[in-house]
Design goal:
The protein has about 400 residues and is α+β, with helices and mostly antiparallel strands. It is about 35% helix and about 25% strand. The chain has two domains: about 280 residues, Zn peptidases (Aminopeptidase), CATH 3.40.630.10; about 120 residues, Alpha-Beta Plaits (2-Layer Sandwich), CATH 3.30.70.
């Protein structure tokens, strides 16, 4: 019997409490850096499993030492989104929060972090139960505030590198709309794009709508900027380079006959190459400043970085090792080439801080009879099974590719 088979012998029993936990987490989501109850639940369970538990930077790390061998870190993110749920599930979230403008918003695990937590805790339990199947040190890391792109750095800033054993490799996974439930997808090299979000404030000069000559209209300036930004990818990047520039919000004025004093744009960018990223951001700043200068705006525009996500660039050797292990356990028909996904993550901040290689893969969330809804959608509701089982298996298999005490095949 292989190492993996023996380690997963308790999966049926673990699945029973996982399903209950998943429903609980889904019904009780918490926003970024507010994951108080979620963090307490994770810490309690890790402690019960026999891990040394620390709370670091708003997250939780469980350390399980089991003799000589490598050290492997497996990361799961734990925060939810300000999205009002529309799944119709009997365990749907009814949690609300107040946003920065004082409005009430729904809170939902619309990205699947409830699944990530549940699978990671299942893997932690199985590894603790079957220490005879592996040797080394296992780090179960649960990270806050991924949705803000700030949680990984918060853990690093709070001394993560000094508070836990230094890993040899870092691993992570994400539930996705594709591949199908029960399947996983891996890929070497750049897999998730780097992403930046900007707030651009244009200062004009207010006036009566009937007297535009006495004002400087920031709406016109904003419109010119929006149109001009479309040329960044189309005309400033080489045809073979990937880049995205999206203006997601334009806000100005409140009344038809008032020229407002300012306009605010929210802009998002994506790139798979750091040089391309720099080119895009520099072009945005150049265009914004030039349009404001052309309009004779009374003040320089303000360009504020709201969040910045690094590139997720999977190490080829680690990816090959994990992929071989997944194929050996799941079979080649259930392991796919993931393909590039132009979403963004801050997972890589942690392995980059440690200076170690990593890989990050996806597992499917929807069975063939379901509509595959994308992450961040109010109707995002992955199947409970076989999704939790597959995510748990994938985590254990990947970890044992490094810590397993014998050949897994």
């Amino acid at each position: 019997m292989s190492t993996v088979t023996r380690a997963l012998e308790g999966l049926d029993e673990v699945s029973l409490w996982q399903e209950e936990l998943y429903r609980h987490l889904h019904a009780h989501p918490e926003l970024s850096f507010q994951e108080v109850e979620t963090r307490a639940e994770i810490a309690r369970r890790l402690g019960d499993f026999g891990y040394e538990v620390q709370e670091i930077g708003g997250g939780v790390v469980g350390v399980l030492r089991n003799g000589e061998g490598p050290t492997v870190l497996f990361r799961a993110d734990i925060d939810a989104l300000p999205v009002t749920e529309a799944t119709g599930l009997d365990y749907a979230s009814t949690v609300t929060a107040t946003d920065a403008d004082g409005a009430t918003v729904g809170v939902m695990h619309a990205c699947g972090h409830d699944s990530h937590i549940t699978c990671a805790l299942g893997a932690a339990a199985l590894l603790a139960q079957r220490r005879d199947t592996w040797s080394g040190t296992y780090l179960a890391l649960f990270q806050p505030a991924e949705e803000l792109g700030a949680g990984a750095q918060a853990m690093v800033d709070d001394g993560l590198l000094d508070k836990v054993p230094h890993p040899d490799v870092c691993l992570g996974q994400h539930v996705l709309a594709a591949p199908p439930a029960g399947h996983v997808g891996t890929m070497a090299g750049p897999v998730l794009s780097a992403g930046d979000s900007l707030r651009i404030t244009i200062h004009g000069k207010g006036s009566h709508g009937s007297m535009p000559h006495l004002g400087i209209d920031p709406v016109v300036v904003a419109a010119s900027i929006v149109l001009r930004l479309q040329t960044v990818v189309a005309r400033e990047l080489a045809p073979g380079d990937f880049g995205v520039v999206t203006v997601g919000s334009v806000q100005a004025g409140q009344k038809a006959n008032i020229i407002p004093a300012e306009a605010v744009l929210l802009v998002n960018t994506r790139a798979y190459d750091e040089d391309v990223r720099v080119t895009i951001l520099a072009a945005i700043e150049r265009i914004v400043r030039a349009e404001c200068l052309a309009a004779d705006c009374p003040r320089e525009p303000e360009i504020t970085v709201l969040d910045s996500f690094p590139l997720t660039d999977n190490d080829p050797e680690v990816t090959a090792t994990v992929t071989r292990a997944l194929v050996a356990h799941l079979g080649p028909d259930r392991v796919h080439e993931l393909g590039r996904i132009p979403a963004s993550e801050d997972f890589s901040v942690i392995p980059d801080a440690f200076g170690v290689p990593y890989t990050y893969w996806g597992y499917g969330g929807f069975t063939p009879d379901m509509d595959a809804v994308p992450n961040h959608n109010p109707a995002f509701a992955p199947a409970i099974q076989p999704v939790l089982r597959t995510g748990t298996e994938a985590a254990v298999v990947a970890v044992l590719a490094y810590l397993g005490s014998e050949d897994q095949t």
